[in-house]
């Protein structure tokens, strides 16, 4: 495994109390693999990613347990300087909003080139040539001229391409993309997603793709990890999940994807709201919303069971995963 997050716990101490944002997350991604991380707003997708990248706001955030193994080393035990080196060169992150992540007063050429000057000791001139090359790679037309322009002079889709170029500049082993296309309109979304998927294959990087759009992951992801209230509730190869989910929450997410063949039908939405992270229900956190819930679910927190009887590596945190799978 390139990246393995084990039993990660993150809390936020606020004036109102302690929000338990991440409550024992386990996930992994291999080199050359794409893991899609899915879940409703507030389920802890970004906080987990920030912990992996080492960019969590601390305080108010605090990592209270777990391990983050990257290429076999626990990132949580590295010295800050070593950590910074890993973050700069071996892993990179793509955010939803390029405009606030790029520096408005530097041309995109300067920003892309900076990576090579700082991390590879290149001359300004060579770095600029590299910047143009990267802009070509992410298919920005007229790169030779546009390299002098500033972020605000690019469209949203083009800016997102620049962010992808920044992330890939040093050919990191791992890229985390946090809702990379959410801010774009639908046609541009698909183009940017295709580009990201293509580059991921070409560079053979591990990609963690955070999204709440189950629709986009089918084509690009190898595995899916579904999060709920700061835990992974199901993890499986994409095709298995689409065929038959092994967790009622995943089933709910799947049922709420709009389908072209059912136009006009009312869209299903999972009933109720995600829990208050300062007061997570006992037992299974999903039980108040779950159509399959029984007494056991209200008292006993389900472990991440191995889903047996399939030849793939699947896990579900549901006491009744068998019923869900076959129901
Ligand atoms: N800086 C912060 N201060 C306090 N609480 C925070 C902070 N950042 C995150 N949280 C808490 O952590 C929870 C999980 O946040 P996170 O950003 O990981 O959600 P998410 O799954 O990425 O949601 P979304 O789909 O909306 O991006 C939030 O509901 C919030 O309560
Ligand atoms: Mg988020």
TrEMBL record:
InterPro entries: AAA+_ATPase, ABC_Ni/Peptide_Import, ABC_transporter-like_ATP-bd, ABC_transporter-like_CS, Oligopep_ABC_C, P-loop_NTPase. SUPFAM superfamilies: P-loop containing nucleoside triphosphate hydrolases. It is a peripheral membrane protein. The keyword Transport applies. Residues 5-254 form the ABC transporter domain. One of its GO terms (biological process) is peptide transport. SMART domains: AAA (SM00382). It is found in: Cell membrane. GO terms for cellular component: plasma membrane. PROSITE patterns: ABC_TRANSPORTER_1, ABC_TRANSPORTER_2. One of its GO terms (molecular function) is ATP hydrolysis activity. Pfam families: ABC_tran, oligo_HPY. It comes from the Bacteria. Keywords: ATP-binding, Cell membrane, Membrane, Nucleotide-binding, Transport. NCBIfam families: oligo_HPY. PANTHER family: DIPEPTIDE TRANSPORT ATP-BINDING PROTEIN DPPD (PTHR43297:SF2), OLIGOPEPTIDE TRANSPORT ATP-BINDING PROTEIN APPD (PTHR43297). Belongs to the ABC transporter superfamily. This is ABC transporter ATP-binding protein. It comes from Streptomyces ferrugineus.
């Amino acid at each position: 495994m390139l990246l393995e997050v084990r039993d990660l716990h993150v809390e936020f101490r606020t004036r109102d109390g302690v929000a338990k944002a991440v409550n024992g997350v386990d996930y992994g991604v291999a080199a050359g693999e794409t893991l899609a991380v899915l879940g409703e707003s507030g389920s802890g997708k970004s906080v987990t990613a920030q912990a992996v990248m080492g960019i969590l706001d601390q305080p108010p955030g605090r990592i209270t347990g777990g391990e983050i193994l990257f290429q076999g080393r626990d990132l949580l035990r590295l010295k800050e300087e070593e950590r910074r080196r890993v973050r700069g060169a071996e892993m990179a992150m793509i955010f939803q909003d390029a405009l606030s992540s790029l520096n408005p007063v530097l041309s995109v050429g300067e920003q892309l080139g900076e990576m090579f000057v700082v991390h590879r000791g290149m001359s300004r001139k060579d770095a600029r040539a590299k910047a143009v090359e990267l802009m070509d790679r992410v298919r920005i037309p007229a790169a030779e001229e546009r390299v002098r322009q500033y972020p605000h002079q690019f469209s949203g889709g083009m800016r997102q391409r620049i962010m992808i170029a920044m992330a890939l500049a040093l050919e990191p082993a791992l890229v985390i993309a946090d809702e990379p296309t959410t801010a774009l309109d639908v046609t541009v979304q698909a183009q940017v997603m295709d580009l990201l998927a293509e580059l991921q294959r070409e560079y053979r990087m591990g990609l963690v793709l955070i999204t709440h759009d189950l629709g986009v992951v089918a084509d690009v992801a190898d595995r899916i990890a579904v999060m709920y209230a700061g835990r992974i509730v199901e993890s499986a190869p994409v095709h298995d999940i689409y065929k038959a989910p092994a967790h009622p929450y995943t089933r709910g997410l799947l049922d709420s994807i709009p389908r072209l063949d059912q136009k006009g039908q009312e869209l299903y939405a999972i009933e109720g709201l995600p829990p208050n992270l300062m007061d997570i229900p006992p037992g299974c956190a999903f039980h108040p919303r779950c159509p399959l819930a029984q007494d056991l679910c209200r008292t006993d927190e389900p472990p991440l069971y191995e889903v047996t009887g399939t030849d793939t590596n699947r896990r579900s945190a549901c006491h009744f995963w068998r019923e869900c799978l076959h129901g």
